[in-house]
Amino acid sequence: MDSYEECGLNWVVSALGGDTVMPPTAGIGTIVHEAMERVPEGDLERMREIVAEHWPELDFETEWIGRKERRRADLLVDRLHTYLGDVRREGGRVIGSEVEFRFAVDVAPATDEEIAPTVHAVGEDQANKAIIHGYIDRVEAYPPGAGEHPTARGRGWEPMSGGPDGPTVVVDLKTGKNDPESDSGVIEHAQLAAYQVAVQQGLIEGAPSSSLAGARLVIVSKTLAKSDYRIAHQHTLDDESRTAFLKRVSDAARGMSASSFTAQVESHCADTQRRVHPCRIHTVPAVSS
Fold this sequence. Notes:
Layout: E1 3-4, E2 10-14, H1 24-38, H2 44-54, H3 63-89, E3 93-106, E4 119-120, E5 129-141, E6 168-174, H4 190-200, E7 212-219, E8 230-234, H5 239-256, H6 280-283
């Protein structure tokens, strides 16, 4: 949550794309994102120049760690170059890059949970609304029948839908290690759903809602046997999945705006395989006085 103003219920909920903090590992993600934004056609040498330009901004504990991470950054850029080349070969074009959007979602009382929340433009009256604000890494348009990237989709993928002029796809670039890797893993992915709602509401110039074919993670930190990157595609939100997402936003805003709330223990809280001391406030017993 970015901010809370005590004027009724007025939450601002962020759905930001990309890495936004700047320790070295996250800084690498930020640099790779900038390379994609500034070089949307994917020229490899120009993207490498952007990495070199920003590399002195990162502070590593030792020189050998810096060298290792530089090799990793170069590898991520190489894989991004491959993806952007595949987009061109499939006839894809960029509609928008780092596209900002905002929309408001009604936050109904808990007694009205059966009512589907309504989406509004963000105006002066923000009471009892959650505001979704974010930036979409990239929006792509393809000719009819193109844009699937099947070798990067893994098993069990299904073709996209799209308008008669071809599909429009929202893209979120990922450089980390813990993102979902398959279509089935992003069915309820909230960040991608927020991007889809932005397109459905007509907030993305040049991207008609009738052509929306879903949103996807493009993961350059992971590969498949026949692909230098992975794609996890969230298909176009239908009425049921859209309502479910909007209710999640409404419920979260209502709960976080209360005078107190219970921190629930989730599966990730004890994920010691991937995180160091995760969610200790949840898992460490209280000390009696």
